[in-house]
Amino acid sequence: MEYKTDIDIAQNTTLIHIKEMASKLGIEEDDIELYGKYKAKLPLDLIDEEKLSENNLILVTAITPTPAGEGKTTVSIGLAEGLNKIGEQATVVLREPSLGPVFGIKGGAAGGGYSQVVPMEDINLHFTGDFNAVEKANNLLSALVDNNLQAADNLNLDPRTIFWKRVIDMNDRSLRSITIGLGGTANGVPREDGFNITPASEVMAILCMASGFDDLKKRLGDIFIGFTYDKKAVFARDLKAENAMAILLKDAIKPNLVQTLEKNPAIIHGGPFANIAQGTNTILATKMGLSLSNYVVTEAGFGADLGAEKFLNIKCAASGLSPKAVVLVATIRALRHHGGAKKDAVNTPNANMVVKGIANLEKHIENIRKFNIQPVVAINSFTNDTQEEVDLVIKACQELHVEAVVSNGWAKGGEGTRELATAVKKVVDSDQSKFTPLYDWKSPVKEKIEKIAREIYGATSVSYDKKAQLNLRRINRLGFNDFAVCMAKTQKSFSDDESLVGRPEDFEVTVREIEIAAGAGFVIPILGKMMRMPGLPSHPASEKMSIDSKGVISGLS
Question: Which CATH class is domain 130-248?
């Protein structure tokens, strides 16, 4: 059989006009804002708060991932296709890809095989300009900050305390630490600065947390910048920045409508980092999907200890959303890895390693149940899986009273996920899930950190470096104790040590520092070193990409 790449499959699919896709959701043509034939913006007045609880939200997350990832996006799209195959009206709601990883290591990020969202090239590249708008809004605030430093009537801002950084949506390690304002008094005040990648911007996190345009403006004004020389906190609103920033985001706040390969609706909106931010699409996009469909399938970044924990404790707690089921994606490859298989052996069948690695899956199942939600395990199928290994996972899940189902959406699309869709529908219909957040936002920040570390990671204790202790006192002084907690740690382990695979026990996590994202409404405890600006590998994915004289792109995935 001829092997086809993701982009081959996408380019050989006949798309329907986005007006037809809108019609499938009951949306009038005049109510969509067209971006060509196959993309459209959806106005916020289509959101119907009364329908949110009537329809069914399904979260897709994963066990602790290997560097290659376990295929959450592919499973999410495949599950939406499968639900439509069994007669349910389902929409998949996803994040937008970042250009940095597209041209870096990953290539495209719009699903894979026969479970993709299209137009694949547009979604992976500039799409409808949302990332550009976030970048410009972020950098407008940076420009206003540096302009104020040399203004005659300045805010007395101490440049040594400025936390706000510029962003660009590209992997460029040379921009991590820079010096700006050189060249004399006309060029500004010299100071150290740096760039983050656009998905790491707090503006992106704010866009994804906003409940509407007025809330977006307020949150932008609440961005914490730094301190004056006399130790007073300075916010974006002190620079009168929020309205100008919101103007740049006036279209970006509207969710984007596209389609799947099987011509089912897909809403794609927002793209915050999953380790230092909430790692999920916008609240508005999820609500839009639930207003227009009986089932919404959405995903959260990395493993369930990061993505699902934040989706549930931050996004759902802030918005009132309540998932009816959680799909936990596992791969035999990842279970071998967590069972101790070496890097060059994870694709080699090994039942003993799988048995050992199941401990990681069991901990994730345990964690999902802490939120009073019943999980379904999706075994994302790969060609080197053996039936013996698959049966071992299914049996282990049966013993935990969890259904485990092989998902074959990559190879077969919706036909390959019928069984998974049926299993998910069974959990939804059983009404077993009664979502409850793990913690109360009003409890002290330290208490929330330790609850996540002990309950979700399995840590025995939490220690705080001197900087983190100072940060806790600052949070208390500024009145931010009732913020949510957005933990930042490695995705490669339950612990803050990426070498501890499987289900580590008897370990301590260390909080190095705690950042404040006042506009987003959370604080960010940093466990270990977090990368905000990735670098390119020796041979980036961009090297294999090409475009011909007719504009046809190849090598994107």
Answer: alpha beta
Tell me if 297 sits within 8 A of 76, measured CB to CB.
yes
Annotated catalytic residue 74: yes
Domain spans of the chain, in order of start: 6-128+252-328+406-430, 130-248, 445-526
- Output the six-digit token pair for 86: 């069994």
Pairing of strands 90-94, 265-268: parallel
Whether 254 is a known active-site residue: answer no
Does residue 39 carry a catalytic annotation? no
Give how far the C-alpha of residue 310 lies from the chain's centroid of Cα atoms, to the nearest Å: 9
Catalytic residue, chosen from 131, 164, 224, 302, is: 302
Which CATH fold topology does 6-128+252-328+406-430 show?
A: Rossmann fold (3.40.50)
302 is catalytic: yes
Q: What is the maximum span of the chain, computed from C-alpha positions, in angstroms?
A: 74
Kindly name the residue from 274, 300, 341, 459 that is annotated as catalytic: 274
The first and second tokens of residue 501, run together, are 């695979």
Fold of 445-526: Formyltetrahydrofolate synthetase; domain 3 (3.10.410)
The whole-number pLDDT of residue 2 equals 60
Read off the pLDDT of residues 432-476 as tens digits, 9 standing for 90 and up: 899 999 999 999 999 999 999 999 999 999 999 999 999 999 999
* pTM across the whole model: 0.95
Residues 6+ apart with CB under 8 A from 35: 41, 128, 256
Q: What angle do CA 224, 533, 501 make, to 5 degrees?
A: 105
Owner of token pair 């597209």: 102
Angle formed by the axes of helices 130-149 and 202-209, to 10°? 130
Residue 107 pLDDT class (50, 70, 90 cuts): low
